[in-house]
Write a structure and sequence with these properties.
0% of the residues lie in helices and 51% in strands. It is mostly beta strands and 281 residues long. It starts with a strand and ends in an 8-residue tail after the last strand.
Length: 281
């Protein structure tokens, strides 16, 4: 039996993913996975940097994993660094502190509640110089952020991928906004069901929509129009969507799926595990 994969990211030929509280890497096409790092705590939400030299990931720690921070591992040297010292409050079902995206310059952006008076709200912060500077982006509540090809910001609010929210349609369901600091922001995606895990590719925004008995990938144009259903899973949920402009990567039933946006085909790769089985328990 293969280990249960909880999140993944792709950039060109590189894929990183998390399973069994460890960070793994493999090349697209070969799918030979090797373990980078683990045993630090409850690891989730691995993200490759735009230059593909670093993997950032969230670690929840303390006796009940109620606190979380962002760490990184440099792929050339293998050096692991702690990026933040926020001890952001989190629980396993609601990860308030996590990776949110990257600036056009390649700086990581995190979402956290640690610097706010309200524990159930997260804002977006730009992290500079390996964690020496953390700057509030002053755009309010946010879970994810991307920059479109026109320089605008696409912000996911309440778009955390939380499996216990199946069927949720309440006031804090996920929505997506777009705009900029000069002209302001406009809500462009507000569905009846919960929206999670947004990603952007060219002129389209992709996201997972909770349909009640299933979770499928949908997309719109940059104005939130021209809605398309990209997958058609029955009684299954797509999770942890990410992408690099050419491919989308997501998890179904603990397995990686890769959606080629050109061919419109979905690949479920057979992974060859190069590291010992001990790390996959």
């Amino acid at each position: 039996m293969n280990p249960y994969i909880v999140s993944a990211d792709i950039r060109k030929e590189k894929i990183c993913f998390v399973t069994s509280d460890s960070v793994w890497m493999m090349d697209y096409g070969r799918f030979e996975a090797y373990r980078l790092f683990g045993t630090l705590g409850e690891i989730t939400d691995a993200r490759l940097s735009p230059d593909m030299k670093t993997v950032y990931f969230r670690v929840a720690y303390s006796e009940a994993a109620y606190h979380a921070d962002i760490f990184s591992i440099h792929l050339d040297s293998g050096q692991v660094e702690r990026l933040t010292y926020l001890s952001g409050y989190s629980v396993s079902r609601r990860p308030f502190t996590q990776m949110a995206g990257f600036t056009p310059e390649g700086d990581p952006i995190i979402s956290t509640n640690a610097l706010l008076p309200f524990s159930n709200v997260s804002h977006l912060y730009r992290v500079r110089d390996g964690g020496k500077s953390i700057e509030d982006m002053k755009i309010g509540i946010g879970s994810h952020i991307f920059y479109d090809e026109n320089g605008g910001m696409v912000i996911g609010r309440n778009t955390l991928d939380m499996i216990h929210w199946k069927g949720y349609k309440g006031g804090t369901k996920g929505v997506i906004w777009r705009g900029n600091l000069k002209d302001g922001f406009k809500k462009i995606i507000d569905m009846e069901g919960n929206v999670t895990s947004p990603a952007i590719s060219g002129k389209r925004i992709y996201f997972i929509l909770d349909e009640g008995n299933s979770g499928n990938i949908y997309s719109t144009d940059l104005n939130g129009e021209d809605l398309r259903k990209e997958t058609d899973f029955k009684d299954k949920y797509a999770r942890s969507l990410s992408g690099d402009g050419s491919h989308l990567i997501f998890i179904v039933d603990g397995d990686i799926h890769i959606f080629d946006l050109d061919s419109r085909k979905i690949l479920k790769p057979e992974i060859k595990w190069l590291s010992p089985a001990f790390y996959r328990r």
